[in-house]
Specification:
Number of helices: 11
Keywords: ATP-binding, Nucleotide-binding, Transport
Radius of gyration: 23 Å
Organism: Sphaerochaeta pleomorpha (strain ATCC BAA-1885 / DSM 22778 / Grapes)
GO molecular function, one term: ATP binding
Protein name: ATPase component of Mn/Zn ABC-type transporter
Helix content: 25-40%
Shape: globular
Oligomer: single chain
Structural class: alpha/beta
CATH class of the largest domain: Alpha Beta
Length: about 350
């Protein structure tokens, strides 16, 4: 009998094998062992081409996670029809000891009619409280200078790990709103609360800001690596700091550009480095100010793909302001419009 099909012992609920070698086990319940496996795989140096799993129970949720982690074979003590169908569609070799129509849990019901793997993964992380983001609550916000009012009676909320697109023509206060969220500007009226606190009361690394790229920028001799390193936690050991920087650069796909001058990179590459800086910072709220400005179509598409990936993986709360009318369709986020948009 193959090793991964042998009986679970010592109260283990999940065992994971690299071919015939046991590399991970857990005694937890629900999806917690699988999320622990995800953390383990992030640093596992062995091959991930032959991941075989034995789990006590698997509904569609467990199947979604295992497929996402690259599991090739699975043996399940108790499995649902929904899980079997999902495994088989993904090409996973699955066997079981007992099969039922559905597992008796809310998560199984929530996923029953869902098909988008990223949306299912986000839902599961949120139900497991594995969200990096913070809550944002803006109430009756108004900002004026002189006789001009940029916005008034503005109220909205974004949950932990949520996303919001703020649209509007130039001059309607989009960047002003971001400055209020960062605590760099006081509203004329109303309140901004992040995780229930005024922005000035937050720990210094909570908010990451990615500013609008300029068409012409003054160049300085600073590498992409140095830009990201400015955000690293200096209380960490030198080895851990290097790991955090390298991981952030790899996560956003710009590791190979680490030694290049930041200001000689393309606009899209600069924005990816800026995202890497926010990841290295462990920012829980990302504020993006016109991130696609001055980008060509290919760079714009690559940047939006990266933003989508962050919304599924690290899941910080993200607020993006733009006058780009197509971004709403591209990202599918909830949208807030400031002022009136004109064709």
């Amino acid at each position: 009998m193959e090793a991964y099909k042998q009986s679970l012992v010592d109260n283990r609920t999940l065992c994971v094998f690299d071919n015939e070698t046991l590399i991970f086990s857990d005694k937890g319940r629900w999806l917690n062992p699988l999320f622990a496996l995800e953390t383990f795989l992030d640093t596992y140096q062995g091959s991930k081409d032959h991941l075989y799993v034995h789990d006590t129970a698997a509904g569609k949720a467990a199947a979604v996670l295992m497929v996402r982690f690259g599991v090739k074979k699975a043996h399940i003590n108790l499995i649902s029809d929904l899980a079997v169908a999902y495994y088989q569609r993904a090409g996973v070799d699955v066997t079981w000891e007992k099969k039922v129509e559905k597992l008796a849990c809310m998560t199984e019901s929530l996923l029953e009619t869902m098909e988008d793997s990223d949306k299912m993964y986000r839902l599961l992380r949120m139900r497991a409280h594995l969200v990096d983001g913070v809550s944002v609550e803006v109430t009756d916000a108004c900002f004026s200078y002189g006789q001009k009012t940029l916005f008034e009676n503005l109220s909205f909320s974004v949950p932990q790990g949520g996303q919001l697109l703020v649209k509007g023509s130039n001059g309607n206060g989009k960047t002003t709103l971001l400055k209020a969220l960062m605590g760099k500007l006081d509203l004329t009226k109303g309140t901004v609360l992040i995780e229930g606190k005024h922005p000035s009361q937050l720990p210094g690394r909570t908010i990451g800001y990615i500013k609008q790229q300029q068409a012409h920028q003054q160049q300085f001799p600073v590498s992409a690596y140095e830009v990201v390193s400015m955000a690293v936690d200096t209380s960490l050991s030198p080895e851990r700091q290097r790991w955090e920087i390298d991981t952030s650069l790899r996560r956003t796909g710009v590791f190979e550009l680490r030694n290049q001058n930041f200001y000689t990179l393309s606009g899209g590459e600069q924005q990816k480095v800026s995202l890497a800086r926010c990841l290295c910072q462990k920012a829980r709220l990302l504020l993006l100010d016109e991130p696609t400005s001055f980008l060509d179509a290919e760079s714009r598409r690559a940047l939006l793909d990266m933003i989508r990936s962050l919304s599924v993986g690290e899941m910080p709360t993200m607020i993006l302001v733009t006058h780009d009318r197509e971004i709403g369709l591209d990202l599918g986020w909830s949208t807030l419009v400031l002022g009136e948009e004109h064709d």
